[in-house]
Amino acid sequence: MAAPEPPIPAPPPPPKDDTKDELAALDALEKEASEFNKDAEIDRILKAFRLDAYAVLNLQPGVPDTQIKIQYRKLSLLIHPDKTSNPSAPTAFDRLKKAQTELMDPKQRTHLDECIADARMLLIRERKLTTDSPEVKAPDAEFLGAWRKKTVEVLVDAEARRRKQLRAQMQEEGREQRKVDEEVEARKRRREHEVKWEETREGRIGSWRDFNRKVGGNGGKGEGGKGEGEGKKRKKMKVLG
After folding, report:
1. How far apart are the C-alpha atoms of 24 and 18, rounded to whole Å?
2. Per-position b or e across 4-20, b if 16+ CB within 10 A of its CB
3. What percent of the chain has pLDDT over 90?
4. Does residue 151 surpass a pLDDT of 60?
């Protein structure tokens, strides 16, 4: 009798595939990094000086319009409120949009460029430098920081003047509007007076007729039917000579 065959050993378990776990971990890290970048950019935009559209968009003055559009698109996609849970995203997005609109408007961008240029010249004068000075031709971080600070001062001063002019304009417009309103009210009162005068015209005419009839009934004489002057004694005239 043949001996029984030994049992066939079970195949070893397949090697554990760690690829999926690694990919999931990488995805989580990328998502965390992405959220960190979004939060950091939102924080940067909110801290940027809002009157300086270049600072809000993180651009250098003088860049072409194409660069402004590219930068705005990149940042707007990064911090869009629909793509982040950061509660400050809507505010940052609105400031970003406002900055892009200002830089794409020729008049507003020219005003901003002029303020930045004025700040540079003021800084040069304060430091008794010239446009040919090495510090100006090749500005270091300290000079650029001082330039940004001076730009803030110039922009604040320009905005204060703009608001003052706007208030003066609104006050002048208010005075003009009050003048117009007063003229309209005066014309209205004159029309109402004329209407009332016409409405009482028949009454005035009737009163005048009644008065004339009463006077005519007395024969034009005074009291007692005597004419004016009757009843008075005539003075005798003395004969001279």
Report:
1. 10
2. eeeeeeeeeeeeeeeee
3. 52
4. yes
